[in-house]
Amino acid sequence: MDDALTLLRREFEGTEGSFLLCLRGEGLVWDRAAFSRLGQAMRSACEQYEDRDDLPRWMAEGFYETSHCVAEWTSHPNFPRPEPVQYYQDCLERLRDLADWFFRGWHAYQEPHTWRDL
């Protein structure tokens, strides 16, 4: 898990070679492999923090920003979005779902356990 958190921190800080830096940098590149690594690291964090009430600020800010900003950054008509379009849309939905899971403690595809979880 430490590797996933290290990768997540590097992504959220926009370090060299990160998916998020590639989106915002001069290249404007959607790196599929880097997106996959980011998604896996986010999923690992969701699993680790699922039952905890204490969320590290850097992680919470990163989940929020990523789930909102990737769609915004890539919305320009000249941004070279990955093909097929459905893949791109699924990726944006995945980021929103992961953030929702991180903040709520359960993911959208689980059945709520109590009325409070609705």
Keywords for this structure?
mainly alpha; 118 residues; globular; disordered C terminus; 62% helix
Task: Give the SSE map.
Layout lengths: L1 H12 L5 H6 L7 H18 L7 H17 L11 H20 L14
Helix pairs in contact: 1-3, 1-4, 3-5, 4-5
What does this protein look like?
The protein is mostly helical. 62% of the residues lie in helices and 0% in strands.
Distance separating the two termini:
29 Å
Give the strand tally: 0
Main β sheet profile = none
| Portion in helices | 55-70%
Beta-strand percentage?
Answer: under 5%
Task: Please tell me what the overall shape is.
Answer: globular
Helix/strand structural class: mainly alpha
Output the helix-strand order: HHHHH
Mean pLDDT: 88
Structural Rg: 15 Å
Number of helices: 5
Would you identify the regions where 5 or more consecutive residues have pLDDT less than 50?
Answer: 114-118
Give the number of domains: 1
Quick overview:
This protein has helices spanning 2-13, 19-24, 32-49, 57-73, 85-104. The protein is mainly α and 118 residues long. It is globular.
